[in-house]
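Render PTHD3 protein in 3D.
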Amino acid sequence: RLSCIRNNVWLACCGVVSAGLAVLSSFGLMLFCGVPFVVTVANAPFLILGVGVDDMFIMIASWEQSSRKKEKSDVKCLLAETYGEAALSVTITTLTDVLAFFIGTWTAFPSVRSFCLYTGTAFVFCYMYTMTFFGAIIVLNHKREQGNRHWLTCMPVGVGENQAEKSCWYNACCIGNCSRQSSQLETKQPESEHPMSIFFKKYYGPFFTNKWIKLLVVLLYGAYLGGSIYGCTQIREGIDLRNLASDDSYVIPYYDDDDKYLSAYGPRVMVVITERVDYWNETVRLGIENCTQNLE
């Protein structure tokens, strides 16, 4: 918003901080429990940030609708109605994400198992912080607006200030604007409905409630469901190393020839020495050589 009072920049920043706290809590708990940290886990913060910001938007939208419907600014009633509207959708989305990643811990790949453990736990913490920390931030931001305070400095806007004697920067940060016009009664004005809400209410909703459109949606969903079931029957666990190389790489014909001519011999067998060995000692080297010959 362009309003120096209704601008919610700090609220959005705190929503991102909430997702960051979830990542820190998850990583700290998993490392404390001894779960190995692999490279793929480094991608988890981006997933948590996406879900955390989505939950933040749902909470803010529910708060705005509740405050627009209620004439009284009772914080308890507004917050209760906000949680009543937003908590269900946030809970369902979090539950499905957590189940999906915890099911992924059943895989045979240790790296994928670690990634799913870290990410699934982070989703749980993200839900907890959204329902507690971010809800408190919304209330504090509401009190700031009710106190007619600036979004950046939290100083009272246009109260007892001789704006003509102040600089433009001071008026912008502490009074509200550079034009030396007071914004003292800004929070008293009713706020208009968001253009996106108007679009979904007047155009998007009536379009999809048409009976022919609903029939088309059902048919499309049936085709999507059939394709998904077919895809589940074709999926295989594992990785094809050809997909990791570029199309013109020499690796691709190498693996093609390996499968064509050498696949009947089975996988390569490797011997790993797990103890500390004095390789400089000739007797030790001869022992390793004899062990290799016996295995062959």
